Amino acid sequence: MKARSYHCTDEELLVIGNRLSESLKRDLKDFASLSPQFDEGYVMGVDDKIGICTELMSPESEIVMLKTATTRLHETMRNLRALASKLSIYLKLAKADAPLTAAEFGLTKLFRKIRSRDVDSMLRQLRVVTDNLHTYHKALVRHGMPEAFPKQLNAAALSINADKQKQLTIVNARSELMQANMEKMNDLYEIMKEISRAGKLLYRKTDAVKAQDYILRELLKKVRADRRAARAKGLR
């Protein structure tokens, strides 16, 4: 088994590679003054390696399937949140016959799990809610909840679980493919280190801002910060 020579995820490596490529194109004249190897052909070679590794990691057909499953999963989770909101209203209306708070019923924690997109924890918490729903079903129906409401929750849970399994299948297949082609990823990383070294030599003492564009650990920090910011937006 070929060991990876980089200490980040495959996805992060490719994002950093693309950012390095863009910086290299911007500063190619300076790089060429450092060494004639940095020419248009070199840039094309870098982009070719990134393209090959990108396709290895995420063939187009898999990208479409993964995006479809993820989009559908998030939409179902939004629908589940709407259903849970309705259930909290029915629970308040049925307070005399179902003397539980939203927290005791399991809804408060369910909302929190939906917001975090923690699918496994959310499905476990949904079972708590459906168990309570079964216990107080008649009381809730008397206060306006549709008879078939539990079936809607169950359908959402089945859909979410199916899309999660679909994601796992695609990601695991991609991981196996990447392991089989680790040498190509390691080769890309070596090129990235070469660009990084040259960029730091060029700008470390003359342009601190540009130098940051070639420090791999700084680029990784930015990639992870961008990802955290995107996750923080949560479900809308």
Helix/strand layout:
Elements: H1 10-26, H2 28-34, H3 40-57, H4 60-93, H5 102-105, H6 107-116, H7 119-135, H8 137-142, H9 149-180, H10 182-203, H11 208-212, H12 216-232
Brief summary:
Helix content is 80%, strand content 0%.
The first-to-last residue Cα distance is 42 Å
Radius of gyration, taken over Cα atoms and rounded to an integer in Å: 25 Å
The largest sheet, given as strand count, sense and whether it forms a barrel, is:
none
Mean pLDDT, to the nearest integer, reads 91
Instruction: Assess the beta-strand content as a share of residues.
Output: under 5%
Question: Got a strand count?
Answer: 0
H-E string: HHHHHHHHHHHH
Apparent shape: elongated
Helix fraction bin: over 70%
Give the low-confidence spans. Answer: none
Number of helices: 12
Helix/strand-derived class?
mainly alpha
What brief labels describe this structure?
80% helix, 236 residues, elongated, 12 helices, single chain, mainly alpha
Descriptive overview:
The protein is mainly α and 236 residues long. It contains 12 helices and no strands. It has helices at 10-26, 28-34, 40-57, 60-93, 102-105, 107-116, 119-135, 137-142, 149-180, 182-203, 208-212, 216-232. Helix 1 packs across helix 12 (216-232). The longest helix is centred in the first third of the chain and has 34 residues, at 60-93. The model has no long low-confidence stretch (mean pLDDT 91).
